[in-house]
Amino acid sequence: SPLEIADYFHTEGICKAAIAQERWGDGAAVCPYCGCTHTYMTKEGRYICKDCHKHFSVLVGTIFENTKVSLRKWFLAMYIVSCTKKGMSSCQLAREIKVTQKTAWFMLHKIRGLFGITDEIELDGEVEMDEMYLGGRETNKHNDKRTEGTQGRSTKTKTPIFGMLQRDGKVVAMRVENTKGKTLMPIVEQFVKKGATTYTDEANIYNKLTEKGYDRLFVNHSKREFVRCGDIHTNGIEGFWAHFKRVIFSTYHCVSKDYVSRYINEQLYRWNTRE
User: Less Cβ around it within 10 Å: N or C end of the chain?
Assistant: First the structure.
């Protein structure tokens, strides 16, 4: 609980010791400037490299470097962000840990930067694929301010996102420039093992899956077909999209295109570690 986190990490020294243990384990500190392990600690708790003779702290090279916010608040913020099911706005975090909204916004984006997708993820077995479009609502705009031709798969005012979900496994999603087949197929080959069974909708962008070495089964959403033969559907990845949209619209309300990837990674972390 947040209370237990606050009670355990009650001093800056304990926080720094935890960071050192996470970075270097029981071994010697590694110099962030030259990579040397011939280092020693001073009485003030800083380190000195015997090779390049530079002084450094355990925070150099981390998201805490040069921070003016106490590590206790950083640790509490990381716990709250990782455990909150629908995320937390910068305004709410600012109230929780007693910092300004701008500081809370900065901390949140630093923390989201830790949630990136790694190339080690490989989806196998049964994999559902789908794309979604974030933003671009024209309904409540005045007629003079509406953008023409934004229906369907248009990306004039919407941000395209592509996702793949392994049934009973992990999900991978990312912002893409467009949802053309030549854009999505390299992503599929990067994260999905050859021979996997893929489930998609009827879109032509997935036609080359069979050529790339995947089995493809699909449902025809345009004919209002959502499940075929019991297990042919994309309901799993669409469930992730539904949760992601609820997070964006209910907690953050509006997200800049420049930071969409960080919000996606935050939700991927929560989804993939929900058990």
Answer: C
Distances in Å between the Cα of 257 and the Cα atoms of 133, 134, 141, 220, 226 are 12, 9, 19, 30, 30
Give the count of beta carbons closer than 10 Å to the beta carbon of residue 197. 16
Q: What is the DSSP letter of 147?
A: P
> What does the angle CA 216 – CA 218 – CA 224 come to, to the nearest 5 degrees?
175
Q: Determine phi and psi for 157, rounding to 5 degrees.
A: -125, 5
pLDDT in tens, 131-180: 998 876 656 666 666 666 556 665 656 889 999 999 999 999 999 998 89
SS3 79: helix
Kindly state the average pLDDT of the residues 116-126.
Answer: 87
Specify whether the CB–CB gap between 246 and 255 falls below 8 A: no
How confident is the prediction for the chain on average, in pLDDT? 89
What residues contact 150, with CB distance under 8 A and at least 6 apart? 136, 138, 156, 157, 158
Span 181-217, pLDDT tens digits: 999 999 999 999 999 999 999 989 999 999 999 999 9
- Between helix 260-272 and helix 71-83 the angle, nearest 10°, is 70
Is residue 22 within 8 Å of residue 61, measured between CB atoms?
no
pTM of the model: 0.83
* Rounded Cα gap, residues 81 and 235, in angstroms: 27
Strand partners, 164: 129, 172
